[in-house]
Amino acid sequence: MKKHSTSLRVRLPVLVLVLEVLLLALYTAFVTYDNDANAKLQNNETKPMDNALYRDYPYFADIQVMIFIGFGCLLAFFRLYGFSGMVFNFLTATFAIQWAILVQGYFQFSHAGKIHLGVINLINAEFACAVVLISFGAVLGKTSPVQLLVMALLEVPVFSVNEWAVLKYLRINDAGGSILIHLFACYFGLGATFVLYRPRLNEGHAKENTSYQSDILSVMGTLFLWVFWPSFNSALTLKGDDQHRAILHTFIGLSSSTLTAFALSAMLNKNGKITMADIQNVTLAGGVTVGASVDMMISPAAAYALGVMGCTACMLGYKYLSPFLARHLRIQDQCGIHNLHGLTGLISCAAGICAILTATEEVYGPSMYEIFSHRAPMEGDPKLLELQELIPGLQPGLGRSAREQALYQVAAVFSTMGVAALGGILTGFVLKLPYLASPSDDLCFDDELFFNVPPHYDCPMALNGQIKTDDSTAS
Amino acid sequence: MKKHSTSLRVRLPVLVLVLEVLLLALYTAFVTYDNDANAKLQNNETKPMDNALYRDYPYFADIQVMIFIGFGCLLAFFRLYGFSGMVFNFLTATFAIQWAILVQGYFQFSHAGKIHLGVINLINAEFACAVVLISFGAVLGKTSPVQLLVMALLEVPVFSVNEWAVLKYLRINDAGGSILIHLFACYFGLGATFVLYRPRLNEGHAKENTSYQSDILSVMGTLFLWVFWPSFNSALTLKGDDQHRAILHTFIGLSSSTLTAFALSAMLNKNGKITMADIQNVTLAGGVTVGASVDMMISPAAAYALGVMGCTACMLGYKYLSPFLARHLRIQDQCGIHNLHGLTGLISCAAGICAILTATEEVYGPSMYEIFSHRAPMEGDPKLLELQELIPGLQPGLGRSAREQALYQVAAVFSTMGVAALGGILTGFVLKLPYLASPSDDLCFDDELFFNVPPHYDCPMALNGQIKTDDSTAS
Amino acid sequence: MKKHSTSLRVRLPVLVLVLEVLLLALYTAFVTYDNDANAKLQNNETKPMDNALYRDYPYFADIQVMIFIGFGCLLAFFRLYGFSGMVFNFLTATFAIQWAILVQGYFQFSHAGKIHLGVINLINAEFACAVVLISFGAVLGKTSPVQLLVMALLEVPVFSVNEWAVLKYLRINDAGGSILIHLFACYFGLGATFVLYRPRLNEGHAKENTSYQSDILSVMGTLFLWVFWPSFNSALTLKGDDQHRAILHTFIGLSSSTLTAFALSAMLNKNGKITMADIQNVTLAGGVTVGASVDMMISPAAAYALGVMGCTACMLGYKYLSPFLARHLRIQDQCGIHNLHGLTGLISCAAGICAILTATEEVYGPSMYEIFSHRAPMEGDPKLLELQELIPGLQPGLGRSAREQALYQVAAVFSTMGVAALGGILTGFVLKLPYLASPSDDLCFDDELFFNVPPHYDCPMALNGQIKTDDSTAS
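Above: the input entities. Below: the structure tokens describing the complete assembly.
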């Protein structure tokens, strides 16, 4: 692979041109406005401020910050890979969203052969995008922008099909996306990195380390993700008290996991000092762990406990599991997504199942059948009419029992993990095809390969007066 | 000019004192609260949550982030000019807004001799502020804070008069401000920099370059602008579906222009690598290009195409046009605002005119006469009454035909460009007056001139142990 | 003190474990959902979009950014203390909020022995958290994370009791928290740092200085605080015109204080250059100064004047008062909180009192009795019935006169200052207890003490090729 050129001069423009022609054709043929964005449907009944825009846009904006600034900074933690981490995230995210609007639209938002576009589609597309970026974390530093675009091109459809199938046939509760987003992204990324295994990187790489500035930048990314995570977990819940709980649980879970992360970081280091990598990643574990039960009446204390548990599992994963995976299972998980999204995701699913099994009308009142909509009585069931008097507009459900719903959740977990891992492995083989500008081992974790970097970017001495003349050519 | 002192010790305080006395006097004499901020007008009809605050504030907050953090980081891209880029942006922006509240207030928000102040005025003032900051991009690194305040002092009134005259007499559609904001700011800035021409800078300047850290900081600024641009383009549209479309179009346009920017950046570099300056600037082209038609029913595909076109024009401008302007037309456009705001603005206006010419009731329904309000039938026209039954509260218009409206748009483009260029040139001459602390050529692009910088700020070796003692004096 | 070990390996985990067990027990026993987050209370009357969530969450999110990113970056201004400033802020803030939810909940949000949790509690808890972080500014660089957690553990209850007592018994107007937040935080922090006095630090410390990058990072923090301060000052005002005014006044006050800060910074430096520390701190003075009268009809001009006055006092405080306090009163105020929160807070209180004394029904209309709720007529007073016809749902008040209300404000100022200073001093003594890992004088302002730092983090030469091999051990 090393013999291949890694110049992007032809590869990237050609790929992008093909993709853009494809996207533009599909947008032209199939994408129209949804009712809330369509001028024609405005009449003397439609009140402008009732537009769905005003319910969805604030959450969309928060998620935008997480995707582009949060992830971007977080992935810029390598000393000489800041440009790539931040900017490839930007490139991959923008393409993934454009592509997801079409693929998800086809499966979830199409009526009469047209995809109806509104801000709500953008939110869904950003979730698909988050999936790609999480998987990106597994192969960070070892992939070219061409490979990343190809990965997004393949991952978005696999994700969308799985999401659609699970929601349509298994009918699960997963407000925070622990199953459909975090577990999927994790095992897809592990599958891909398994195929892209580079034995020499196990010996340690001279550039696989951080600098003072890159550590600080990465923590900023963490803080942006931390601050807006409640919006992420609550963006697609039912409005009202459900969304309110989702925000409370996410905030509490993040807080307790952050406190725990500091303690464990100091405890697990022989010298009793804090490691920045732990602060950058493990503090966020709570956000994932509350995901599957985030809109349920689990009580604030349970959210607190979930944060602590998720954080502990995540930290131990970084300490013991990741090295093991790399050494013995050929799985080089660069950012440790298996710890932050896999282990925590599994705990989250387990918690969600417990919450489902223990849910009672006593605690939830009749609106239990809104949150667990598949447990609502079926069409024609007299119980449905009673409930509809208490909760107007309650939809008929499948009349599932708690145990049935729990079993479907389990089915969703395993099928998602399977689909994701398989999709990741196949994608990995595609990424190994020639002409994708895959970097050689020595040039991993180095911006110089794909960027015009300032002279002596790896040696600030360059800024020194003597060789300033070199610099003047850099602008 | 070099002989003049550049100490700010007297100049800046005196100028600021004069400005503040002036501003305070004018605020005292003329500024009062608008109805939604006036306690006295609250009665048992006024519902607190109906306050305009709740419609406007979220957009205001997003634009605040763009102005102070987005622009601030973006303009900090020079290796030794980070303090100045970020902090002069802060200074100029705060003054421009205070000043614009008064000037715009006089022209647009005054009733019975009083300026009525609400958050909506602040949004308008931030647009005026954005104009000044865009023009600032043309003279970045070559101007003192005193000059920047003077520029803001002169540019805000010229902008406000042009905005007021165009809206009152030409009556155009320009939701995203392509004409009134981007074209105006661009040609005003070019006019000013034309007069401030410094021949020696064409030979290249030892400090006119970036560092690894400054490039990353600048990309962060780009990302903040990118993320919140939909709020910028939609802040002043009609509420409801119009604003919804504005957000969709801006997001799609930005996405496609970002993807294109990466491809072109790699393609136009002989070594096939990506240039950070392209990512910092060209990715944003789509946001400007969709501006003039952002609230119209142009279809998502058209927004996509506009993003690609604007990005391409912008990129070619950086590659070929800017060097030409600097060498042959004495126009040193430091940040290339002519590419990012001028060329894209012109494409945007052309697109807006096409959208106007092709607009039909078939596509828009009766609300066409809300979006193109000047095409609504005139008072007394029976058609007006029919329409008002369909769209309550539809205002009578001017009964313009599509072609008439298009011609007015064209008139607005050229008159705005003319007024801006002339105003910029005259401002340039004012900025050349002595005692404005204009930096000498060698001290351009250097924070040391106007800031107490940490010792050896241009040479990180200074942090080394040996000379730490020097540092201890720096706090 | 130097002899004590500063390893966090046992101390931090033990303290955190104890705290988490305590918190989890209390959450389990006492914390439940408030009505707007409780599924059971949803019925066919409750409209989802009427949920308090949609009024409170946007302000909560803005304050989150201020607490975690604004403060975090601002406190990272030391050259070698960026990890600590940013990350200890993160740790302290998360714990303080968890703890404040319980303590404030007990005093303000408990019904029938249960704390009712909603987003509104989180906003209140973030205010308590802001208090701790302001006090943290006084002892920055001289304290261990263990000490900071202990400080938060003690400060939150003292703050909450004072807040509760003042609001319940003195009944004051303090929308922006000038008294309850800024004055309290300031004098608590000064009390603590007075006890933690370190004579040797008065001689200057080799690491007590900034670098080019740390100064820029800190300004970013300032900008985030600046941008979202209007949300901070208006989060707890009455909805509608009151909140509208709070946002306008805060924005105007910040703008005028920023402009003033630049002028004074240049004026007070012999060399006529701008000092970054002034931009980082003094520009924010206006936000505090408008606090106590932020929701009143003081006129925009008054907000402007308050910004200028507060900024001037703050700047002079940094220049002359802080050195005096350190040299003669053993008060080492690391970030100058006495200037930014103390002096400005006092001016704010004085302004608030003037606003109260000059308030008339002529200016406010009947809603004067909503803003100054304690001046509303008492139950049974015929005037109350008249007013309730004009303002439905007006609560009966205490029938206070303006002068009476003013006297209660004065009482609140002095009692708060007294309680805070006393609490701070006592906390200071607790922080001096052994085993809290207090850093030795030479290791103050240095990340190396509590963090695994990249090799040669204080000497970027390390990034140089020759010793890259060392680096490879750092990841």
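Note for the figure: Chain B touches chain A through 81 residues (CB under 8 Å).
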